[in-house]
Hints:
5-stranded mixed β-barrel, 6 strands, alpha/beta, CATH 2.40.50.140
Amino acid sequence: MPKLTFIIGALILCAGGCKSERAIEQIVRSESPSATVSARVLLDAYIANLIRADEKYKGRIIEVTGAVGNTGVEFPNTPYVMLNASDIGTGVQCFFSQEHKKAINALQAGMHVTIRGRCEGFNQGVRVEGCILE
């Protein structure tokens, strides 16, 4: 029974997470970005002063440019692109809905891209959700 509960919970989270990225993406598509910034400048702003950076970026639609560090999938099956922004391995992690998986798979490390999404603040790197490749 605990195994079944876990599976049902995971399915609910996946459905909620996938729907969440799509819902945020619709907002991102409907609004103009409030800022265009490089991944390095965005990360540096958060490292220098988290509160000030949140006031400027968190909850806002932004365009962020940078070099692809890697791509992957985070639970619950949410594809992402990590933009390199520092020498210590942290950066800007951009999350996409499943519809973008094919485009993300075509990206290679080192490619320069521009991504639009909603900044969600800092947690071991800057998090941007509801993303679309520009």
